[in-house]
Model the fold of this input.
Amino acid sequence: MHVSWPVLLRITPFELLEARLAIESSAAGLAAERATKADEIALEECIKQMEEETDVLLLHEQGDRNFHMTIARMTGNAVIVSMVEALWQQRDQSPMWRRLHDHIYRCNVVR
Done:
């Protein structure tokens, strides 16, 4: 999903978080109802990856993204998958999000 640059400049980190909360919490409910053993194993792998990334949390969040995308895929709903992916892409492209993370990292708020 492509979002124009002027629109991206107006999307705040808190709006992205609010949208993720609304969409991903519903997705988690559906995923829990539909999860297979293979899905559970995939989620465990994502958790392991996140644990390995803790020392570079704000720079490499692939495990976190994989975790949320795995849950989205577990719903079996392609629209939910595309919406979750679009939210991650918007976050990655957001100058405000980048500044927020840079500030948090510089202030040692998260280590």
Notes: The CA atoms of residues 55 and 96 lie 23 Å apart. The chain has a mean pLDDT of 85. Helices lie at 5-10, 13-34, 37-52, 62-74, 78-93, 95-106. The radius of gyration is 15 Å.
